[in-house]
Design the sequence.
């Protein structure tokens, strides 16, 4: 990848004193959970009848925790993320983020999609600046924030390029920078690396972990790949299909960086694979 951030680029990034890092205030002091999902049921009315996408889904994520969500295709992972993001309203139950009930989208929660979701008519720099500008930040502050995150994702020399001129990995870096520039404390990622080649995916996994560590972000990351979940997460939450419920919650206590060939990694891989392929979790 041209102009890819050299390894370590994100690792060394720290927020300057005048711009609190995304993790610095993501929950009031003493709050046990950054995200709480309370018995969320989601029903969609369709021509063929109601679809129950989620039934009594319940989970909690601590501030600064990295949680991966896995489950068969159609089990409601994206729906759950969209409800946390505030793009959808649960049919019953609800979500609190940093102790406040979610009633709609907010800059405190950023969502990163597999298909990037960039504004195609804006340059890389304008995409990153969009959120802070829309929130009425002063021009100098918008510029400083934008340049900081452009550097953090190693895309300075592509600042004036448009999304269609970038590789998939670069587009995903812009998407991540855009969310962080908007001061997101919670990042919701829906198979963000699913469309990338294996090498780019590995690179971005490393960069994301480094960024997460240096900022104390709270991350909920949806993936189909068991290995990716074990590599990244503090905890892997397994959902059952139709309608989605949370059926298992598996802590990943392995030290980072994780060795994908270690016996402990393999044991977890087998455990999660068995859960996904058991009665309640036929994998996609
Ligand atoms: N807007 C909608 N209208 C009707 N049904 C919907 C809507 N959104 C999702 N669904 C249904 O809800 C269920 C869960 O969908 P969702 O996209 O959350 O699954 P997923 O776990 O993210 O799947 P995948 O792994 O394939 O991305 C599916 O049956 C889907 O068809
Ligand atoms: Mg999905």
Sequence:
């Amino acid at each position: 990848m041209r102009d890819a951030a050299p390894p370590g680029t994100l690792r060394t990034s720290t927020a300057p004193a005048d711009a609190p890092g995304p993790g610095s205030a993501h929950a009031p002091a003493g709050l046990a959970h950054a995200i709480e999902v309370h018995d969320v049921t989601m029903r969609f009315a369709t021509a063929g009848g109601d679809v129950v996408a989620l039934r009594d889904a319940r989970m909690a994520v601590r501030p600064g925790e990295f949680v991966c969500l896995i489950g068969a295709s159609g089990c409601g992972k994206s729906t759950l993320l969209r409800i946390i993001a505030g793009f959808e309203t649960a049919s019953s139950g609800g979500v609190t983020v940093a102790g406040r009930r979610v009633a709609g989208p907010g800059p405190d929660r950023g969502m990163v999609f597999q298909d990037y979701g960039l504004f195609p008519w804006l340059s890389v720099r304008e995409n990153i600046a969009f959120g802070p500008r829309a929130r009425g930040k002063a021009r100098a502050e918008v510029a400083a924030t934008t340049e900081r995150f452009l550097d953090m994702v190693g895309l300075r020399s592509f600042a004036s390029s448009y999304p269609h001129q970038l590789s998939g990995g670069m587009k995903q870096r812009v998407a991540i920078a855009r969310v962080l520039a908007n001061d997101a404390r919670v990042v919701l990622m829906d198979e963000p690396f699913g469309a990338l080649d294996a090498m780019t995916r590995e690179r971005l996994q490393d960069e994301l972990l480094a960024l997460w560590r240096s900022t104390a972000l709270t991350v909920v990351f949806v993936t189909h790949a068991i290995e990716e979940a074990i590599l990244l997460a503090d905890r892997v939450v397994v959902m059952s299909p139709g309608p989605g419920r949370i059926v298992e919650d598996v802590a990943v206590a392995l030290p980072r960086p994780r060795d994908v060939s270690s016996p402990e990694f393999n044991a977890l891989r087998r455990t999660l694979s068995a859960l996904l392929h058991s009665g309640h979790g036929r994998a996609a």
